[in-house]
Fold:
Amino acid sequence: MAMPLETPLLLQLEQFLAGAKLPALLEPGEAILPLTPLNHSLEPKSSHVLLQAWEDHRNLSRRVIRATRSQRGKLELAVQLFGGREGKLLLLDLASPHTAEWRKRGRKLEFRERFHRFLTREYPDWRVAEVTTEPDLEHSLSPAFPRAFLCRGNRGLAAIAAPPAQADSAGILTFGLIWLAYLRAREPKLQIRELLLLVPLGREKQTALRLGFLNQPCRLHIYDEDDLAIRIDPRDAGNLDTHLPNCHRAPMHIDEAASELAAVPGFEHVPQPEGTASLRIHGLEFARLPGKATDRELLTHARELSTLRNQPGSLLHAQDPERWLESQVRTNLPQIDPTLLPAPVYGQVPAFTGGDRGIADLLAITHAGRLAVIELKASADIHLPLQALDYWMRVAQHAASGDFTRAGYFPQLTISAEPPKLLLVAPALQFHSTAETVLSFFSRDIEVQRIGLGSNWRAELRTMFRLNGADHPL
Structure:
């Protein structure tokens, strides 16, 4: 329970610490300092209570003048700073469910300090001018990855780190490139040529593979739980995790109800490489062939799904927008790119073991036999360029090795071994504002186009712009 603020200050502090299972001290902007009976002291003075706490790498001494707010698991304190200014200090019980957000914030600050120590240890000739976890929405700088700026003479070094608890460590490269571009614009008098990335041991592979397709020099370090860090060569990251299954002929169209099914709004019959066929309404699958449902049952399911899928405001209308966008693009491939053959087109090949990326992948081919990777996203995604690169590099490897021909893809067509085109397709207003920045770091060997669609793409697919690489719209 919260205690009355009228209680004498020393007693408030003692009662809070005595009742806390895991007491800790937090000063805004600093890491949490866990408290034990042996690493802190309270000394009453005439106008304040002197609170001192210490650990291996820091000491803290503050004049506490009053308690400003008391809540479950938290006691806010006002402290006297130099010059008579007031500051803020928090006593926390880390065992309380009410301090979860503070524990999370404390872990971020703690890792920020670990990152700072790594930089000063590994780069002693550089001055660490800035280390921060503060969000910057205007420049799309994430608080999830602490970032730093180092200086030496007229040179600068951009750095960024992935905390051990970060679920998607590979996202570090997107934010690292954005940070690098931001620093170059902010510090025009300095030469900031390199980006330093620090990632947990065992989670460096995806980032390392991506670095091989950038025009930007990067330093990649890995660290373990004891903060032992080493610099590694991205070329030693290992092979791509990719698999290309053999492509089999899909089952024939349904006989009795085929014409009626084809007339259902949004119906698709999409052959799959393993020899099945996916029956869909605007991208939502409702059956597979061969299957147990009769033709009439399939027709009933298709009509019911079509009614709900085409009803604005319904849950099914909004569900899986990428699949609906994929459906539209499949039907209008030459409109997306006039050099593409309308068929065949494959989805989700080669197999990608990177998990659910939230992006729809299509693989098509040009009249000249060059493969084209099409990445689709219906909403803004800051990671779209690099996630598209993940798929592109796998297709490029299989194309160079002749795997697509041997596996039976694009039958009766000669498949070129040259690197595929990369098409990023999204509603025009849904390309993230940083897409151009990230794409500017792509190797010149990767031919990228951004294709922006009209906002009414569900009803009509209209191309609003077509931009090469990092080009700006006029």
